[in-house]
Amino acid sequence: MAIGIGIILITMYMSLTSGTFDITVQEVIRTLLRIDRNPDQDLVIFEFRLPRIIIAVLVGMGLGIAGAVIQGITRNGLADPGILGINAGAGVAMVIFMFFYQGQMKGTGWLSILAMPMFGLVGGLTAALLIYLFAMKNGRLESQRLLLTGLAIGSGLGAISLFLTLKMNVNDFEMAAVWTSGSIYNANWRYIVSILPWMLLLIPLIVRKSYILDLFQLDEDSAISVGVIVEKEKAILLLCSIGIVSACVSVSGGIGFIGLMAPHIARRLVGGTHKRIIPACGVVGALLVMISDYIGRVLFAPAELPVGIVVAIIGVPYFIYLLYRNKVRS
Fold first, then answer.
1. CATH class of residue range 2-329
2. Most Cβ neighbours (<10 Å): which of 71, 157, 200, 246?
C-alpha cells in the first residue's frame, strides 16, 4: 500500500508538471501554496490538471473497489462492472441528453455543468435496477443469471446508443464517441463535488462488510450456517457497487477493465482476504487510471487519446491472459 501510494504521488507530480505547458516543481509548489500567483499557472493547475488528477484517482478507486465486490458476489474472476450493463445504462442516458438538449443548456452554473453527470447517474441506476429485477428468481439473486442479464441489457442499451449517435450532428457525435470510450478531459471541481459523497458514503460501508465477501466464497448454505442473511447482504453490497460505478461513469464515461484488472492485481499483492483486497483495489485502480490518462495526454500531444482507450489497450491482453490461465488450470 505504501509503495502504491508512493507511485500515485509520483504520477501526480508528473501529471502536474508535464504536458503542452510544462511547469517546474518549484512553480507547482509556489502556485499550490499561493506564494506566487501567476494567472497562467493558476489556470493550468487549478482548472485543468489538478481536477483531472483527482477525478482519475476517485474514478479508478471506485471502479477497482466495485470490481472486487462484483467478483466476490458472483464468485467469478472474470466479472467486471461493465458486464452488468451499468456503463451501457449511463451511456445511453448521456447520449439521449446530448441528442435532445446539447447546445440548449448554456452557462457556468451548477445545473448546466452537472446536467450530463446527473443524466448518466440516473441511467446507470435505472439499468442496474432492471438487471437486478430480471436476475431475481424465486426471491433469490442468482449470480450467473445476474451476469447473463447484464450482458443482454448492456448489449441492447449499447445498440440504442449507437442508433442515436448516428442521428447526431458532427460535433455532438464526436463528443458522444469520446465520452462513451471513457474520457476525463472535461474534469472540473463540480464533477468532483458530485462524485465525492458517493465515495465517502459507500466505500466505508463496503469495507465494513468486506468479511461477508470472504464468506461468499463458500457455498451459500455455509454462509447461511454462520448467520449471514445472504440475499440481504448481496443486495446491499451490489447496490453499493452499482452506486459507485454509476457515479464514476457519470463523470468519466465508460472506462472498462479497471474493475477486472484491479482485483486480480490486488489479490496477488495482498492475498485473498477482502479486508485487504478492497483498499488495495482502490490504490491499484487509481494508479491504473492515472497512468493511462497521463499516457493518453502526454504521449500523443498535442492530440489526446481518451483514457478508456489506453486502459482497453492494456486490459484486452490481460483479459486474454486470465482466460488462458483459467483454461490451463481447468
1. mainly alpha
2. 246
